[in-house]
Amino acid sequence: MSTATTEKGGTALCGSPRAADIPRLLYQAVTDPISSMQVVAQRYGGAVSVPLSRSRAFLVLSHPAHAEHVLVSHNDHYETAFTYRPLQEWIGLGLITSDGELWERQRRLIQPLFSHRRVTALAPHMIAATTRMVEQWATQAEGTVIDVGEAMSGLTLDIVGRTLLGADLTGEARRASEAVGVLQDAASSIVKNPLTWVSPRAAARMTPGLRRWTRSMRTLEELIDATIAERMAAPSSAAAPHDLLDALVGARDEQGQGIERRQIRDEIITFFMAGHETSAMALTWTLYLLSTAPSVRERLEAEVDAVLSGRTPGAADVESLPWTKAVLSESMRLYPPVWTIERDCVVPDDVCGIPVRKGSTVAVPPYLVHRHPDVWENPEGFDPERFIGARAAGRHRYAWIPFGGGRRGCIGNVFALMEMVIALVMISQRHRLDLVPGFDPRPKVTVTLRPRQPLLMTVHHRSS
Ligand code: HEM
């Protein structure tokens, strides 16, 4: 094992497993990725390099300084990893899957659509969707059991449908959510297929289940294609877009060029995939964690009651709810919806003393960075207080990276935070959710971290 000095002056260990251990490690990486990463991090230190061939390695880096190096200060040495490529089969070349000039142009065009001002204008849709959900719960008998993952997916789908497409997808929630789930499972199966290392496209075509995935993709396309076609035929005013689709149709670069129809479709599907399941899972795990920590939940309810006095929240309230935001931050620390971020090295690099050869793949998993013992005391504990006041001060800037970092960081972070705060506040005003015993909190690892079995909770009405 070699020792290297980090950019922040600490020490990072870079381990290299014995050749005899590599097949077992790779098998474990496929069958139980999170445990395997934890094992390598504990056994080999904050960084491990698994040689795959003479010139190529798979590195797992878990120190915040590594995250800063790969995602921010030296991001020009990397592009999106080959592990993201199977997604191109379905979502095409949207922001997540594109690189180079196409990505640069699209990001420049789309970034302004996610500004604080634009997202604030979308808040009424978020409030209306959450109102529909909590009012529906209110009509149910005290103690009704619900599947929280399903409810949160329905909520975020409703929000994404209205804010992206101006469409009511509530009737399609189950169908769309299932389709996204199938596609996520598919992307994970493809990445686990060793052929992916040689040809992601061939692996996507040859991994079993292709028909089911194609069907799921068609479901999503059906939901959005007609809306896109209609809007392109009759766009709303670009000066006053009603939703993100309007804004995309109206977006122009410096030369006055707009976005082509195919590209709009790829971007909308990308937002759909990236923006629906991630927030749904963050809310799901938050409600689970709150049910395990009564004092944290009581403090959240007290904050909500004190700040809002029973009125409906608005976008401006988000800043006045520090405990609510700390609860969400701590929940995404423990269960980061995007649990790993991966890059392929295109220019040889040296990450805090760890050599990275061109062609190697580097993983900087938020799941591990969020548990790094140099930064996080009692890393497995649910303790939102760590995000408040003095305890939050002085922490490495990239110790908490649920939204990634650098120029490829999440474009939807302001959107996500706003919808999640609004949802958590409105749920807490009206209801209290208690865990039905027997839930296994170990996550199922797909593109996002999902509960491995339905998260069942009983709904109690706070006002009654
Ligand atoms: C809790 C909710 C969310 C989490 C945890 C999350 C997390 C992330 C992360 C970690 C990345 C970076 C991936 C990488 O570097 O490889 C990312 C990128 C992205 N996210 Fe999010 N996201 C969330 C919500 C959203 C929403 C609501 C939208 C849009 C409506 C969205 C759209 C995107 C897009 C388009 C990218 C690609 C950006 C690029 O490469 O330029 N995300 N997200």
Description:
- This protein has 464 residues and is of the alpha+beta class.
- The protein has a single domain, classed as Cytochrome P450 (Cytochrome p450, Orthogonal Bundle), CATH 1.10.630.10.
- It is 50% helix and 12% strand.
- The chain has 17 helices and 14 strands.
- It has helices at 22-31, 33-44, 64-73, 88-91, 100-110, 116-138, 148-165, 173-192, 200-206, 210-233, 244-250, 261-292, 294-308, 322-334, 366-369, 389-392, 413-430; strands spanning 2-5, 11-15, 47-51, 57-61, 78-80, 144-147, 342-345, 349-351, 354-356, 361-363, 431-435, 443-445, 449-451, 456-461.
- A seven-stranded mixed β-sheet has the order 1-2-3-4-10-7-5. Strands 6-14-11 form a three-stranded antiparallel β-sheet. Strands 8-9 form a two-stranded antiparallel ribbon.
- The longest helix has 32 residues, at 261-292.
- The radius of gyration is 22 Å and the shape is globular.
- The termini are far apart.
- The structure holds protoporphyrin IX containing FE (HEM).
- Protoporphyrin IX containing FE binds at residues 95-96, 107, 270-271, 274-275, 278-279, 282, 337-338, 341, 402-404, 408-412, 415-416.
